[in-house]
Amino acid sequence: MNIHEYQAKQLLKEYGAPVARGVAITSLDQAESAVADLPGPVRVVKSQIHAGGRGKGTFKELGPDAKGGVRVSFSAEEALANIREMFGKTLVTQQTGPAGKQVNRLYIEDGADIERELYLSILVDRETGKVSFVASTEGGMDIEAVAAETPDKIHTIGITASTGVTDADAERIADAFELSGDTREQGKTLFKSLYQAFVEKDMSLLEINPLIVTKAGDVQVLDAKVSFDGNALFRHPDIMELRDKTEEDAKEIEASEYDLAYIALDGDIGCMVNGAGLAMATMDIIKLYGASPANFLDVGGGATTEKVTAAFKIITSDPNVKGILVNIFGGIMRCDVIAEGVVQAVKDVGLEVPLVVRLEGTKVEEGKAIINDSGLNVIAADDLDDAAQKIVKAVKG
User: Binding residue per annotation — 223?
Assistant: First the structure.
């Protein structure tokens, strides 16, 4: 689960992280009081969407020559003008895709007197199995570009779980940032606080880009992106309260209500599969034959007819879907249950695109009989390779 920048900063502030004063607004009625609440004269107006690259983004309604989604304002009047121009508009960044995201929240923050911009993130390093700090002196930039062009400027410092961030770890991180004097001491304190927040709140990613050093030599969290491990959210009702469903795909929200593992993608072949590994293989073979999956959808090993029906409806609600592939290998999951769910869903919502069904395993003959006796216009497949070829051919005409 992701949260907004202003929420992330408030959370980090509770752990002692230095952040600038700011006010979030969710309507234009709050604009004047928010601007007046900050001393100025410099205020920064920031779009709050769950996507990076906001500063370099463009608003669909304003054209490519308009300023981006993060704007430095040098007076109260300029801040208000920026707020009115940005609020409610659709911001397009590299991470949103061409559809963009509507800006329904803005964060107005005190300006900062920046001397240096650094990059810091904390994540789980899959290679070492450790929570690790990623540190670079090249903050404020596209970290992927830094990694590709100057990888020597990126440093990874793994943390031993039993000790947390030791003094020696903090020194190594400070060295990576080339900090000295009082700034170094502030940084070492901050690194320990950020690690504590990461672990205690079950974060999967904490990214600060940039972490700045001010002209006065103070460190400050200028931006913050935080993602949480969804499997651990039951332990954090306070974090769950920060969820902004308007930033999430409606189909993914509905899928979560039925305990379905669903992720929307940008292809045109809808997939309903049982088992994450088989779902990945299904998407791969669709790509192999020249098409793209519209989703990842794992109905799980113990799906009911109701659950399968819901899954099918979610797939068909995607206007980009031009064909559907149902690929079931029945172990714990019974093929007849899948078949009943598919038939019920088609009766409920209709079927306007080609449907290929491949069933194998437990109760497979019963499942095939249910499909065959339903009167549905279904293309049967013998195996996964056959199924993939048939649905790609059907979609491409």
Answer: yes
Q: Where are the beta strands (DSSP E) in 56-202?
A: 58-59, 70-73, 90-92, 101-102, 106-110, 114-125, 130-136, 154-159
Of residues 65 and 16, more confidently modeled: 16
Q: Where are the domains of the chain?
A: 21-110, 114-240, 250-396
Percent pLDDT > 90 in the chain is 61
Q: Tell me the CATH number of domain 250-396, given options 3.40.50.261, 3.90.170.10, 1.10.287.1700, 3.40.50.300.
A: 3.40.50.261
Q: Is 333 annotated as a binding-site member?
A: yes
The rounded distance, in Å, linking the Cα atoms of 79 and 45 is 7
Residue tagged active-site, from 6, 107, 119, 258: 119
Range with the poorest average pLDDT among 84-98, 225-239, 250-264: 250-264
Q: Is 350 annotated as a binding residue?
A: no
Ligand-binding site membership of 1 (annotated) = no
The model's pLDDT over 197-219, given as tens digits with 9 standing for 90+, comes to 999 999 999 999 999 999 999 99
Residue 305 pLDDT exceeds 80: no
Is 207 catalytic? The answer is yes
DSSP 375: T
pTM: 0.79
The answer to whether 36 touches 23, Cβ cutoff 8 Å, is no
User: What CATH number belongs to 114-240?
Assistant: 3.30.470.20
Confidence of residue 303 (pLDDT cuts 50, 70, 90): low
Q: Of residues 207, 258, 262, 340, which has the active-site annotation?
A: 207
**Any binding-site annotation on 252?**
no
Segment (H or E) for 395: helix 384-396
pLDDT of residue 371: 84
209 is known to lie in a ligand binding site: yes
- Homologous superfamily of the 21-110 domain (CATH): ATP-grasp fold, A domain (3.30.1490.20)
Count CB-CB contacts under 10 A for residue 358.
24
